[in-house]
């Protein structure tokens, strides 16, 4: 059902982007689990005297797997950010200037941090990759500060505590990464509730026209 509320369009775009982003989080989580598994298997193979060569093969295989999965996850995240979430946030900022700072920080921090981390992972075989990953992490912190501001403003506007909780979790995810996954889920749910509420709201009546005397 179509809505005349301009916020609905922004929320829908942001919500679709959030869906991409927590799918990307799942893929990155699988990638990290793969590297841990590869390290365990490599050590196990060495421990049972299969020889260091078998352990090295297991380790390299796991590293290739994790790099592939993380790259795919990063691409999914970029699609969600560039194609859906960021346009929605920019639309929100055009409707309400209070969201402008959040829009700038999220755009600069989240999008470019993923680009740098992606380049760093590809170059991880060389030491230069660590520099890119570190720079990407610094920008990621900036992006999550933007997400906190965005969620606080959405909480003020929509009066939904899920936004507040999501914003806090985004900041905490700087230290405990799994909380970022939970934050995107909460934001997805909160945006859905805001869309439903605004769709149910009665349309704003048109401004009365003043008839000029003939």
Structure description:
The protein has helices spanning 6-47, 52-95, 100-122, 128-158, 161-172, 178-200. With 214 residues, it is mainly alpha-helical.
Question: What is the secondary structure topology, with strand pairs?
Answer:
Elements: H1 6-47, H2 52-95, H3 100-122, H4 128-158, H5 161-172, H6 178-200
Helix pairs in contact: 1-2, 1-6, 2-3, 3-4, 4-5, 5-6
What structural keywords apply?
214 residues, mainly alpha, 6 helices, 82% helix
Point out poorly predicted stretches: none
Encode the helix/strand succession as letters. HHHHHH
Question: Globular, elongated, flat, extended or rod-shaped: what is the shape?
Answer: elongated
**Rg calc:** 22 Å
Overall mean pLDDT stands at 81
Number of helices: 6
Structural class given helices, strands, pairing?
mainly alpha
Q: Percent helix among the residues?
A: over 70%
Task: Please indicate the percent range of residues in DSSP E strands (runs of 2 or more).
Answer: under 5%
Total E-strand runs: 0
Tell me about the biggest sheet?
A: none
Distance between the termini: 41 Å
């Amino acid at each position: 059902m179509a809505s005349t509320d301009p916020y609905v369009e922004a929320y829908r775009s942001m919500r679709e982007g959030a869906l991409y982003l927590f799918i990307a989080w799942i893929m990155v989580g699988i990638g990290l689990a793969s590297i841990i598994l590869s390290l365990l298997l490599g050590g196990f193979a060495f421990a049972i005297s299969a020889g260091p060569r078998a352990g090295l093969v297991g380790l390299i295989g796991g590293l290739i797997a994790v790099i592939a999965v993380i790259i795919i996850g990063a691409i999914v995240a970029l699609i969600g950010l560039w194609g859906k979430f960021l346009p929605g946030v920019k639309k929100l900022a055009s409707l309400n200037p209070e969201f402008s700072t959040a829009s700038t920080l999220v755009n600069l921090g989240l999008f470019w941090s993923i680009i740098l981390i992606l380049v760093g992972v590809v170059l991880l075989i060389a030491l230069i990759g660590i520099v890119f990953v570190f720079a990407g992490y610094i920008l990621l912190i900036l992006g999550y500060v933007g997400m906190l501001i965005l969620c606080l403003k959405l909480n003020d506007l929509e009066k939904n505590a899920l936004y507040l909780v999501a914003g806090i979790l985004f900041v905490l995810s700087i230290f405990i990464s799994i909380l970022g996954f939970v934050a995107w889920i909460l934001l997805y749910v909160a945006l859905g509730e805001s869309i439903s509420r605004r769709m149910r709201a009665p349309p704003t009546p048109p401004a009365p026209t003043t008839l000029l005397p003939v």
